[in-house]
Design brief:
By secondary structure, the chain is an alpha/beta fold. The protein has four domains: 21-141, Rossmann fold (3-Layer(aba) Sandwich), CATH 3.40.50; 166-236 and 245-328, Rossmann fold, CATH 3.40.50; 332-401, Helicase, Ruva Protein, domain 3, CATH 1.10.8.60; 445-497, Homeodomain-like (Arc Repressor Mutant, subunit A), CATH 1.10.10.60. It is 43% helix and 11% strand. The chain has 20 helices and 14 strands. The strands form four sheets. Strands 2-1-3-4-5 form a five-stranded parallel beta sheet, with helices on both faces. Helix 4 packs parallel to helix 6 (166-178), helix 10 (270-279) crosses helix 12 (316-322) and helix 13 packs across helix 15 (377-391). The protein is globular. The chain starts with 20 loop residues before the first strand and ends in a 12-residue tail after the last helix.
């Protein structure tokens, strides 16, 4: 147990006017050395700590602008050091570093007052240096960033958010920041990305977690009944109203009201919702009693509300009232590195809850899942994997067990099969086919999609020409060997195909 001491009077930057003073706290000597060399090259002054006690002792001196703090260290651990430092008023900005990049770690670190969150291994040390630079700039602009208090962190109800990709890490950071205030949140994202799960995460990680979480799907309730559903009604307010009924705003009490598909809220109801949010009060349909809005409101949409505002289908003032804190949940195609972990979770759930025989996925099956674009996002992945787990003949799901609904873009086959066409022409035709897909939304991932199409065959050809020698293949490709290894893993490339691999 770490015992708080007196507050440090140090203001970040006072003793390091020409270069940042950085503390690296990690029990891995090699990591400390690598980070020290990179940061010293940026002009930073660096000191090291290898355990929790020495890390806290150094933080208490107030000599540092920024600290890179590992979560798992000998002693009480990095999160306890973080909590103690914040409790004591240490003004050093702390960047938490860990190899266990789970949502719980990210949210807990941000709740306890971490300035940022980085995951190991570091794919690019420039990103670490940039994170330190940003922290120094922020610290010197606003010395006191002690804004996140430690709170109870119960387990989520309704599922856990899964994903360790950089895109999801940003979402986790936002969750950690918003759980300590009551601002209205607008969650945007395509269907099936898990917007309600993010809303539940905010609720159950906040101080409201003991109060109700009430969800309303604005697109699933007939427009004529939606006002009563939200605000309640008095007896006799309309035909069939035989008794007073409380609406979702009342039922949410001091908890959280989640308004899903808010873009489908009828225009005639939008002024009443706007008033409820502005004045924090409302009345039942047919009633005069004014009720206080105690709940936090979180809204979600898969529509472009800015476009809806321009088309006068959504009130601009309501849009800005809802969008106090925006959170965008990335589609699955933008975080393909999360697909294996999600798939494994769904396979395990199918075995646990439905008695599925399959308990694992083959590398080829995982590669097939990663290569697919998942227009239905996580919901489609869940259904696909659980169906495969239930129908697979063996204990391991093979690629042939997975049913994917691939819709080839118009003209793609013609472009791919045209003799004598130059590579640039084939690529241009393939991109044009994606852009001209009838009835489809404007694509937002052309670059990633094109890279995914070209990168795998390029790597496989280089490995084949190099006889499986990864050093030689990396040299041919102009890549670092570790980068090549990561790409081989990401694409699920089977090295067994290439004799002489190294």
């Amino acid at each position: 147990m770490i015992v708080p001491e007196k507050e440090s009077p140090f203001v970040p930057g006072e003793r390091a006017p020409n270069g940042a003073a950085v503390l690296i706290a990690d029990d891995d000597h090699a990591i400390r050395v690598v980070l020290r060399h990179r940061l010293e090259a940026e002009g930073c002054t660096v000191e090291e700590a290898s355990d929790s006690a020495s890390a806290l002792e150094l933080l208490r001196t107030g000599r540092f602008d920024v600290a890179l703090l590992d979560i798992i260290m000998p002693g009480s651990g990095g999160l306890e050091v973080l909590s103690a430092a914040k409790a004591e008023g240490v003004r050093t900005l702390i960047v938490v570093v860990t190899a266990a990049s789970t949502m719980s770690n990210a949210v807990e670190a941000m709740k306890r007052g971490a300035h940022d969150y980085l995951t190991k291994p570091f794919a690019n040390l420039d990103l670490v240096a940039a994170a330190v630079k940003r922290a120094v700039e922020i610290g010197r602009q606003a010395a006191d960033l002690d804004r996140i208090r430690e709170e109870v962190s119960p387990k989520l109800v309704g599922g856990e958010v899964i994903g360790r990709s950089p895109a999801m890490q940003e979402v986790y950071k936002l969750i950690g920041r918003v759980v300590t205030n009551d601002a209205t949140v607008l969650i945007s994202g395509e269907s099936g990305t898990g917007k309600e799960l993010i809303a539940r995460a905010i609720h159950f990680k906040s101080a409201r977690w003991r109060a109700p979480f009430v969800a309303v799907n604005c697109s699933a309730i007939p427009h004529g009944l939606l006002e009563s559903e939200l605000f309640g009604h008095e007896r006799g307010a309309f035909t069939g109203a035989s008794e007073r009924r409380a609406g979702k705003f009342e039922l949410a009490d001091s908890g959280t009201l989640f308004l899903d598909e808010i873009g489908d809220l009828p225009l005639e109801l939008q002024p009443k919702l706007l008033r409820a949010l502005q004045e924090r009060e409302f009345s039942r349909v047919g009633g005069t009693e004014v009720l206080r809005l105690e709940a936090r409101v979180i809204a979600a949409t898969n529509r472009d509300l800015e476009e809806a505002v321009r088309e006068r289908k959504f009130r601009e003032d309501l849009y800005f009232r809802l969008r106090v804190i925006p959170i965008r949940v990335p589609p699955l195609r933008e975080r393909r590195e999360d697909i294996p972990e999600l798939a494994e979770y769904f396979v395990a759930r199918a075995a646990r809850e439905m008695g599925a025989r399959a308990t694992a996925l083959s590398p080829r099956a995982t590669a097939a899942l990663k290569a697919y674009d998942w227009p239905g996002n996580v919901r489609e992945l869940e259904n696909t994997v659980m169906r495969a787990a239930l129908l697979a003949p063996g204990t391991t799901i093979q690629a042939d067990d997975i049913e994917l609904h691939r819709a080839a873009p118009p003209g793609a086959g013609r472009a791919a099969g045209r003799d004598g066409a130059e590579l640039k022409d084939l690529i241009a035709e393939r991109i044009a086919a994606w852009l001209d897909n009838p009835g489809g939304e404007e694509p937002r991932d052309l670059y990633e999609r094109m890279v995914a199409e070209l990168e795998r065959p390029l790597i496989e050809l280089a490995l084949k020409r190099a006889g499986g020698n990864q050093v030689k293949a990396a040299r041919m490709l102009g890549l670092n060997r570790n980068t090549l290894r990561k790409k081989i893993t990401d694409h699920g490339i089977m090295l067994a195909r290439y004799p002489g691999q190294s």
